[in-house]
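Lecture notes, unit on protein representations.

Consider one protein chain, 139 amino acids long.
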Amino acid sequence: MSNIIFSSKATAENGRDGHVKSDDGIIDVDLVDPAGKSEKKGSNPEQLFAAGYAACYDGALNLMASKQGKNIKSETTAEIHFMKDTSDDGFKIGATLHIKMEGVSQDEAEELAEAAHQFCPYSKATRGNIDVELKPTAV
């Protein structure tokens, strides 16, 4: 790997029914498998991925808008789906990005959403690996 700008670290113990903590302690949460019907409260890997993807994508969206001279206000909600994988009887994830934009038309919102999807590091990392659906809405 070359040209690393920064790195983040988190350590998980005991998988989906365990605990995850970042090296700086900002993230420090119990994990609970939502499909396990547990009464415990906690996060899950998909929720943590959704938070990261939403933040990264929304940043890319605002960068693309500024490069095009557009002043937008945006909100991105990443919905990460945990699904059965029929190809190997395992599991897989998919994503739906719900993108709200103020300050542009619906056509411009769709163009910006696609430009951000091409630029966003999370989108690049998942491209060809998981299904990602973009749902941009001009508000």
